[in-house]
Design brief:
Distance between the termini: 15 Å
Radius of gyration: 37 Å
Strand content: 15-25%
Order of helices and strands: HEEEEEEEEEEEE
Length: 226
């Protein structure tokens, strides 16, 4: 990718990043002397090289620049691919290598998006009645325990029955603790049924039907190397 000037000594992280970025730019030749169609790289670096596989099918087109045969990857960095098989070996997958330092011409072409493990992707923005969702924002829950309160129940009534009677036959068999059986019932009649329920929370599943996949993301590497 080029060499840094002798004595290069950045004073800040920004100076260091700027210096390295300048060396990661790629300068292409203006003209080519022809096109070589071959499974192996041509010796003549002034040509464009169309690489073919063992059956003669076109593989990709390379040009010689920055001291190597290179071809631009068709997918831009940051794009996502859904992978439904075992994870590939990123050291070799799609032309990548095991160089841990990602640059324009070295490193893995793809990585697993571990931030999406166990999560659904959702569009950035503000859903109706919801909160704003930023890039990389997280939220939600796979399941949660919920305990209903009285306000969550539908409006309803309970029936309560009694019988006429009492010592004089003029009262009702409803009591509030201070009345005799011959007194008229209180107004309004304040009655309660026996308590029911234990207030136990219950689990509410929030996952729709699903199938597990991997999400792969294009790294910052830009070029294949032939």
């Amino acid at each position: 990718m080029g060499t840094l000037a002798s004595g290069f000594c950045p004073n800040t992280y920004q100076e260091m990043a700027t210096g390295f970025a300048a060396k990661m730019s790629v300068t292409f030749p203006d003209t080519f002397s022809g096109v070589e169609i071959s499974p192996t790289a041509p010796a003549d670096t002034t040509k464009a090289w169309m690489k073919i596989d063992g059956l003669g099918r076109p593989y990709r087109i390379y040009i010689f620049a920055q001291g190597a045969w290179i071809a631009l990857h068709p997918q831009v960095p940051g794009s996502i691919m859904i992978w439904i098989d075992a994870l590939p070996d990123f050291d070799t997958f799609d032309g990548g290598d095991n160089n841990a330092i990602i640059s324009a011409m070295s490193g893995a072409m793809w990585r697993e998006v571990t931030e999406l493990r166990g999560r659904f992707p959702i569009g950035v923005g503000t859903p109706p009645g919801g909160s704003a969702i930023a890039v990389g924002g997280t939220g939600g829950a796979i399941e949660s325990e919920v305990t209903l309160t009285e306000a969550n129940l539908p409006e309803h009534t309970h029936e309560c029955s009694g019988s006429e009677g009492g010592a004089s036959g003029t009262g009702f068999n409803f009591f509030d603790g201070d009345q005799s059986s011959s007194d008229p019932p209180p107004d309004p009649l304040d009655l309660e049924t026996e308590a029911a329920g234990e207030g136990e929370p219950f689990t509410v599943p929030t996952l729709p039907p699903y199938s597990g996949v991997y999400f792969l993301q294009r790294t910052d590497r830009l070029f294949y190397v032939g």
